[in-house]
User: Fold this.
Amino acid sequence: MAPNQPLTDTELQLIEAYNTIIREPFEDKYEDKWEDKPFDRAVDEFKARAQEIGFTDPFELLKEFNIDSYESARAYLKKGPAMCFRPGWISPLIGQHFDPVAILEKCEHISGPEFAGQHRIVVLDFWASWCGPCVQTGPELSDLADEFWGRIAVVGINNESIFSETKPPNTQRLREFLEENSDGFRYSIYIDNAEGFAKETVYNPAGYRGIPCIILLVDGVVKYVGSPQETLRPALEQALEDVEFMSAREG
Assistant:
């Protein structure tokens, strides 16, 4: 769940501590690989770190992210990630057709070149400004857009409440964020509308429960859904080869 307000430096420290001490070490220890004792030691370490940061009750903040106790965190991690984060998962949108122009007509253009539908290959990036991995991925997608300029369109769709009840977009705040991070977000940026049209029409049906979430379209057909890390580039390179081959046959 995304917080309604930007996190303070102290709150960011607590989130980082939770991620590095509790979440990340146990992400791949689910189901038959789970052990309680290492998790109990991690809880003790996190409690001490939370006190150092200034949180007597860290769940005052963590509950905003649907973490309300150590036992709920244990149960969540022990159960393991959603199927979309496990090896071999395939989105139900693969092979389906979407018109990116129709999607973006419902959104508001914020920065970068406007998308007019002239590209056969479109990389849709669902993201939020409070999401650390999204902010880190911005420069990588910008470099990708530069590298394949004229051959692909990279389009970011911002939705700050992508994991919670849809709220009206704060366009001014997003503009300010992009002005401060202009070097990292050099591709087309749109903001989802008040009803979360892009979220409800594309992101949710895709089944990928994380951000940044990439949806790769070739001639409007979904070819890839998932993280921009590691597996996007091979899928994109294959898409470029396919388009070149089809263009050669058509020519």
The two ends are 49 Å apart (CA to CA). The chain has a mean pLDDT of 93. Residues 232-250 form the longest helix (19 residues). Residues 9-80 form one domain.
